[in-house]
C-alpha cells in the first residue's frame, strides 16, 4: 500500500490517498477532485484549471501522467 497526497497528484490539499496500484491512486484522486468541484472549492478549482491546460496538449499530459506513475512506483 502506497500513500500520496492530493497535492502530489496535481491537486490543492494535503489529503492522503492510499492505494496498491497507480490506477487505484488516480481513481481516488479523481473522486476527490469531483467532490471538491461539487463544493466549488476555490483552491481545487485553480488546480483543475491548471490540469485542464495541461490536458490540451496530449504530449504534456502523457509526460505528466508517466512522471506521476514513476513517483508512485518509487514510493
Briefly say what this structure is:
This protein has 75 residues and is mainly alpha-helical. It contains three helices and two strands; from the N terminus they run ββααα. The protein has one domain (2-74).
Description of the structure:
It is built from three helices and two strands. The model has no long low-confidence stretch (mean pLDDT 96). The protein is globular and about 30 Å long. 64% of the residues lie in helices and 11% in strands. It has one domain. With 75 residues, it is mostly helical. It has helices spanning 22-38, 42-55, 58-74; strands at 2-5, 16-19. A two-stranded antiparallel ribbon has the order 1-2.
Shape: globular
Largest sheet: 2 strands, antiparallel
> Helix content range of the residues, please?
55-70%
Low-confidence stretches: none
Roughly how many Å apart are the termini? 9 Å
Strand content: 5-15%
Mean pLDDT: 96
Main-sheet strand order equals 1-2
Descriptive tags:
mainly alpha; two-stranded antiparallel ribbon; 2 strands
Topology of this structure?
Elements: E1 2-5, E2 16-19, H1 22-38, H2 42-55, H3 58-74
Antiparallel strand pairs: 1-2
